[in-house]
Amino acid sequence: MDKKLIFLDADGTLTLPDGRVSPKVQEAIHQVQKDGHEVFLCTGRSYAGARPLFPIGFDGIISSAGGYIEVHGQKIFESCLSQEDIQLARHIFDQHHILYNLEANHMTFQDEKMNYEFVKHRLKDGENLNSELQRLLNEQKEHFNIHPLKEYDENPIPIQKLCFMCEKEEDLEEPKRVLSDKFHFVIHEIFSQDVINGEIIMKGTDKGTAVEKVCEYLNIPIQNTIAFGDSMNDYAMIQTCEYGVVMANGSKELKQYGNAICESVQDDGIYHELHRLGLF
User: Fold this and answer.
1) 126 — pLDDT class (breaks 50, 70, 90)
2) What is the pLDDT of residue 52?
3) Quick check: 153 and 131 in contact, CB under 8 A?
4) In percent, how much of the chain has pLDDT > 70?
5) pLDDT band at 18 (very low <50, low <70, confident <90, very high)
6) Of the candidates 251, 273, 252, which has an alpha carbon nearest to the alpha carbon of residue 263?
7) Edge to edge, what strands does the sheet with 68-71 contain?
8) What is the C-alpha separation between 3 and 39, in angstroms, rounded?
9) Residue 115: band (very low, low, confident or very high) from pLDDT cuts 50, 70, 90
10) Domains and CATH numbers, the chain
11) What is the pLDDT at residue 197?
12) DSSP secondary structure string for all residues of the chain
């Protein structure tokens, strides 16, 4: 069998809701690598946010939804937003009271209210909310190396991506009108039902173009690629790869575009689909 390049989304595809990766999926990754194939993490997380997954031993990392690419430990691509585009996006989000963060390669800038929105869905009924909330907030800040937005204002650094949260779809009408010439708006079907969570990604930089760059760098035809994803920020990757697999727990919309639907992340979907494909 020819060498295959396998691209795995992180949250909802590779990782369980508690952030772990099941032993069976890790076993599958190591088996396909042993048989000569290569496995890439392809995530919307920043590089810092993806770091806890690195011990699995990937052959390459695509982070910030294609904004940063590393192959065999070597950076082959990095794309950053211009200061002009960052200021435009921040201005229009501030005008419409939309929460947002700025994701750099090794840190994320966001304020406390957005920190809270990211963790509140993990709170369980009956817990000591004050102590548990603080624990989750501290864990979140450490995991993604989160700093206040004012630190970015004082010392700007290159930014790959912006994520946002708002209360209703209408809040995004004007931002989409102003920003859609330069950015793709991607809405995630995650977190609580009382907020809309998504990201804006520079047009021309996405998981699909990242797959193409990796194939070109390794001189592997696109026909030898397989992708696993669960949400619409995986759309470009699923469409670009020869064989696109959507998780059973994934977006209903994304399932229209996959070649196959595998078991859910809780049921070790990656393991079972790689085995069905004869890759180990």
Assistant:
1) very low
2) 93
3) no
4) 90
5) confident
6) 273
7) 74-78, 68-71, 60-63, 38-42, 5-8, 225-229, 243-247, 260-262
8) 11
9) confident
10) 5-79+205-276 (3.40.50.1000), 83-202 (3.30.1240.10)
11) 86
12) ----EEEE-SBTTTB-TTS---HHHHHHHHHHHHTT-EEEEE-SS-HHHHGGGGGG--SEEEEGGGTEEEETTEEEEE----HHHHHHHHHHHHHTT-EEEEE-SS-EE--HHHHHHHHGGG--TTS-HHHHHHHHHHHHHHHHTEE-HHHHHHS-----EEEEEESSGGGGHHHHHHHTTTEEEEEES-S-TTSEEEEEEETT-SHHHHHHHHHHHHT--GGGEEEEE-SGGGHHHHHHSSEEEEETTS-HHHHTT-SEEE--GGGTHHHHHHHHTT--
pLDDT confidence tier of residue 144, bands split at 50, 70 and 90: confident
Scan for tokens 């000569």, then name that residue: 36
